[in-house]
Amino acid sequence: MKTATAPIRLRDYRAPAFTIDTVLLDFKLDPVATHLTATLSIRPNSAEAVLGRLELVGDETVLKSVSLDGALLAPGRYHATPSLLVIEDVPDTVFTLTIETIIDPSANTKLMGLYRTSGNYCTQCEAEGFRRITYFLDRPDVLAVYTTRIEARKSEAPILLANGNPGESGDIPGTDRHFAVWHDPFPKPSYLFAMVAGDLGVITDSFTTMSGREVELRIYCEHGKEGRCTYAMDALKRSMRWDETAFGREYDLDIFIIVAVSDFNMGAMENKGLNVFNDKYVLADPDTATDADYANVEGVIAHEYFHNWTGNRITCRDWFQLCLKEGLTVFRDQEFSSDMRSRPVKRIADVRTLQARQFPEDGGPLAHPVRPEIYHEISNFYTPTVYEKGAEVVRMLKTILGPDGFRAGMDLYFDRHDGDAATIEDFLAAFADATGADLEQFALWYAQAGTPQIVAKGQYDANARVYKLTLAQSVPSTPGQLVKKPMHTPIRFGLIGPNGADIAFDEVSGARVEGDVLHLTEASQTVVFGGVGARPVPSLLRGFSAPVRLAIDISAEDLLFQARTDSDPFNRWQAVQTLAMRNLVTGSGDVAAGRSPTVEPALVAALEGILSDETLEPAFRAQTLQMPSEADVAREIGHDVDPDAIAAARKRLRLAVCEGLGNTLFVRYGLLSGGGQFTPDARSAGRRALRNTLLDLMVAGGSRAAITAALDHFETADNMTDRLGALSTLAHAALPERQRALDAFHDRYRDDPLVLDKWLTLEASVPADETLDRIKLLLHHPSFAIGNPNRVRALVGSFAGANQTQFNRPDGAGYDFLADFVLDLDRRNPQTAARLLVSFRSWRALEAGRRARAENALKRIAARDGLSPDTLDIVTRTLA
Ligand code: 0A1
Ligand code: ZN
Q1: Hey, what CATH topology would domain 315-447 get?
Q2: For residue range 852-875, what is the model confidence (pLDDT) as tens digits?
Q3: Does residue 644 have its Cβ closer than 6 Å to ligand 1?
Q4: Is the minimum distance from the CB of 269 to ligand 1 under 6 angstroms?
């Protein structure tokens, strides 16, 4: 096995020996030999600088020359490798270093640093991409003011963009070239630098801030796609307004620019004043985008915009503090979307994502704290734990402090740290100082990995009118952390009385209870509620008030009652999920043991109740009818998982539900048809979601009538949500009718790569033996391109991440395929390769046969020479 380089540890953090105050970048763009002159004003920052040795980092960086205070340095005065530039005997006061580098953007397949996308130039610098442009103190605690001059052939790049406000621009006389200068007055770390140049279409708008300043807004995209940018522009303006009202945050430059590009490793990037987006999160129109796409565009636009304060004005001291900007900004974008749409529906969607993505990470070999303490490759820490669990920790803080305390803490944080590179300690101190709260125990949420388990047990004494609730918490061991402490966990709750309303209690002991929040702080607590007039059904963790697993001893009847009555919509949904999950876990066991699974009547009754409750919004009813996925069940079972047994049990359950609901499904489906003109708002989307969910359940029944309805739904759809809804139903049911529909879909959108990603995804998701061969064939299809991360994720990512039975084929062919693909991709784009490899994270929970085959595939990857640091890191930790 390969040995990795030494890890980076939080405890080793030292302030930089030097710092950089101003940066002047002068790009002369060329497809294969871009010249960059970087002029840096550097000054000693700590005692270590007195030694006079300056070290700047690079990454495959090609040096042309280096000058100090205007004088060219002779080769003997410095030492340069592709990853390091060392200059001895630098002055002990301010000095100017001028570095010339040469960059080949066309050869950059890693999509980090300066690269090309669709013939344009674009940069990506987070986390450590700036060093691929020039040698630098490429760390987030070095904040400088940047001025960027870009020069290019006019025909090649009529548009020249960088961070900040536009300055001088014009033609270069006697040449076919022109230039533009941009100046960003806000000091920023290098990871927020961006430059974009090329031939792009644009839409423009403007926004007047709360203090009356006019901000110019622009969204750039490929020519011809301008019409698909209007929803993003609308979302941007709503985000800007929301940040003013919800957090008092105003935009600060004269212009805000978004550029949509088609080759991008992640979702989007918050570069100061010049956000660069994966075009998937910008472009939307009814014919090409689903309702889910619209919601994602809105959420990602908001996320990147909100980073202007949480990330840019206040940045991170070091990469261990990544959740300081990411967890907080995810929390902010989730709140924004809740305000724009339906709060309960958004909450359920977010919790489902958390449980599907973060819980398996926390429960497997890649588990790490929200604020890690050690890493080998920072690119591998843009994880669901840092992002989504990080957001949950901020949400708990708000639950504990209340809305006013939370806002006071945020205000103090912005006030105190504007312009700083801050830490989690700084963040928590702002809340503690603003409210007087003691957050010492709460801080463990940042330090301890693993999903806490809470076991709850209730007991009612009718004579004493006392309800006793015992809550025990434990945090499982995770890599590098064997023993954990109890955490401060806010449990929102209610005691549901016989008439469905919450019962009052007149006294409580055993825990701090404030309003509807119970503060769990010990390993075990018995909370005694007095004056309780009837046996209550406990409703715990309302709104999913903490990212924990709750095990509660509650009967099917009580769950059915809760599903009908709980005043908290989240827990109505949860009650049905719990019923369904119990059925699925038992059913999977039955299938594995050769018994025929039975379906609990209470579950069908609960679903029926939700479906016919007209007071509930359609989107909520759709979410409830969807039931746990195969992956959800696998996670719940947790060991010796047999994906085929789970799939069979789930299929059986859906058939039984379809039969149980009978004609109601068809009738309700019919009633929802004919929605009129498409609008992307949450209400109309909810109707479509319910109609598509009903169709999916109808088809689960397997009748000819249902299949005909699905084909008809596909053919008559006048928007992408319905078209794709029907198509995924056909594909996920692996019906023979699917292929003609998939082919028709491909032909209709043959020139639209973003839409073809949906096609690739569905092809890869079919739960049928022939799928793997089909994928191998599609790797050579003209619509696939290994150089484009969206294509790779659509075809290979969906297969490994979502096709439970086929990725986990008992013969191991799915694992072997992924291993081969990752090894191939690793030489081209390590970040994307390493992310695909994460699909192996739960391999130890599989039954013995699959476990052995997965291990072999992983070991084969680990044994390969020349792995990237990204892939080496993931494979090593996954096998550890
Ligand atoms: N900060 C971005 C995420 C991001 C991280 C790394 C990247 O490198 C390829 C790109 C984007 C965000 O949270 O949106
Ligand atoms: Zn972010």
Answers
A1: Neutral Protease; domain 2 (1.10.390)
A2: 999 999 999 999 999 999 999 999
A3: no
A4: yes
Q: Please give the average per-residue pLDDT across 527-533, as a whole number.
A: 98
Spacing, Cα 795 to ligand 1 middle (Å): 22
Active site residues per annotation: 304
Helix (H, G, I), strand (E, B) or coil at 720: helix
Q: 571 pLDDT exceeds 80?
A: yes
Res 1 pLDDT > 60: no
The answer to whether the 1-198 and 453-546 domains have the same CATH topology is yes
What's residue 165's pLDDT?
A: 99
Q: Is the CB of 302 under 6 A from ligand 1?
A: no
| Structure token digits, residue 836 | 């695909």
Nearest CA to ligand 1 atom 1: 269
Q: From the CB of 870, is ligand 1 less than 6 Å away?
A: no
Ligand 1 in contact with 326 (CB < 6 A)? Answer: yes
Ligand number nearest to the C-alpha of 140: 1
Q: How far is the CA of 326 from the centre of ligand 2 (A)?
A: 5
CB 698 within 8 A of CB 709: yes
Q: Which atom of ligand 1 is nearest to the CA of 304?
A: 14
Tell me the C-alpha distance between 731 and 738, whole Å: 6
Ligand nearest to the CA of 268: 1
Fold held by 1-198: Immunoglobulin-like (2.60.40)
Task: Determine the residue of 115, 269, 306 to mutate for testing ligand 1's pocket, defined as the one with the most ligand atoms within 8 A of the Cβ atom.
Answer: 269
Total-model pTM = 0.99
- Beta strand pairing call for 84-87 and 78-81: antiparallel
- pLDDT higher than 70, residue 3: no
Domain definitions of the chain by residue range = 1-198, 315-447, 453-546, 749-880
pLDDT of residue 599: 86
Mean pLDDT of 152-176: 98
Considering the four listed CATH numbers 1.10.10.10, 3.20.20.70, 2.60.40.1840, 3.40.80.10, the one that applies to the domain covering 453-546 is: 2.60.40.1840
Q: Residues 363-373: what's their mean pLDDT?
A: 98
pLDDT digits (tens, 9 = 90+) for 285-300: 999 999 999 999 999 9
User: What pLDDT does residue 51 have?
Assistant: 75
Ligand at minimal distance from the CA of 267 is 1
Residue 597's pLDDT band (boundaries 50, 70, 90)? confident
How much distance in Å is there from the Cα of 137 to the middle of ligand 1?
Answer: 19
Instruction: Detail the DSSP E strand segments found in 311-396.
Output: 315-316, 374-375
Pick the CATH number of 749-880 from 2.60.300.12, 1.10.3430.10, 1.25.50.10, 3.10.180.10: 1.25.50.10
Sign of the Cα pseudo-torsion (836, 838, 843, 845, in order)? negative
| Cα distance between residue 84 and residue 822, in whole Å | 29
Going by their DSSP bridges, the two strands 374-375 and 8-9 should be labelled as antiparallel
Distance 265 CA to ligand 1 centre (A): 8
Q: Is residue 750 pLDDT above 80, yes or no?
A: yes
- Residue 93 burial by CB count (10 A; 0-12/13-18/19+): exposed, middle or buried? exposed
Q: Is the pLDDT of residue 356 over 60?
A: yes
Q: Can you tell me the distance from the alpha carbon of 217 to that of 214, in angstroms, rounded to the nearest whole number?
A: 10
Distance CA(472)–CA(469), nearest Å, equals 10
Q: Measured from the CB, is residue 124 less than 6 Å from ligand 1?
A: yes
Which residues partner with 19 through β-bridges?
43
Distance (Å) from CA 821 to ligand 2 centroid: 28
Interatomic CA distance for residues 149 and 50, integer angstroms: 33
Q: What is the mean pLDDT of the chain?
A: 97
Residues of the chain above pLDDT 70, percent: 99
Mutate to test the pocket of ligand 1, among 122, 380, 382 (most ligand atoms within 8 A of CB): 382
Mean pLDDT over residues 331-355, rounded?
98
